[in-house]
Amino acid sequence: YPMLRGTIRDHITLERRAFVRFFACERDLSHEPPDAPLPEAVATGAEPFLIVGAMAGG
Fold first, then answer.
1. 14 in a structural domain
2. Ramachandran assignment for 37, one of left (phi > 0), alpha (psi -120 to 50 degrees), beta (any other)
3. Are 42 and 24 contacting, i.e. CB atoms less than 8 angstroms apart?
4. What is the CA radius of gyration of the chain?
5. Residue 57's pLDDT is what?
6. Mean pLDDT, the chain, as a whole number?
7. In a domain, 24, yes or no
């Protein structure tokens, strides 16, 4: 299935993609350091902080 290429593994690094992603202010914060401050809008409660998880089983 060529249309799914890159879904599980990154094309360049060949590392598996994370199944948990973090989004705030229409940005993907998944690759930010864990102790990086949240955007001001999230810290004040004006914008939501979204945690999106994908589960796979076999």
1. yes
2. beta
3. yes
4. 14
5. 54
6. 84
7. yes
Give a yes or no: residue 48 inside a domain. yes
Task: In whole angstroms, give the CA distance from residue 30 to residue 10.
Answer: 14
Give the pair of three-digit tokens for residue 8.
């599980």
Residue 26's pLDDT band (boundaries 50, 70, 90)?
Answer: very high
The tokens of 27 are what? Answer: 């940005």
| Nearest one of 18, 20, 56, 24 to 38, comparing CA atoms | 24
Per the structure, the count of domains in the chain is: 1
Q: Which domain holds residue 12?
A: 2-53
Length of the chain: 58
- Whether 27 is covered by a domain: the verdict is yes
Q: How far is CA 27 from the centre of its chain?
A: 9
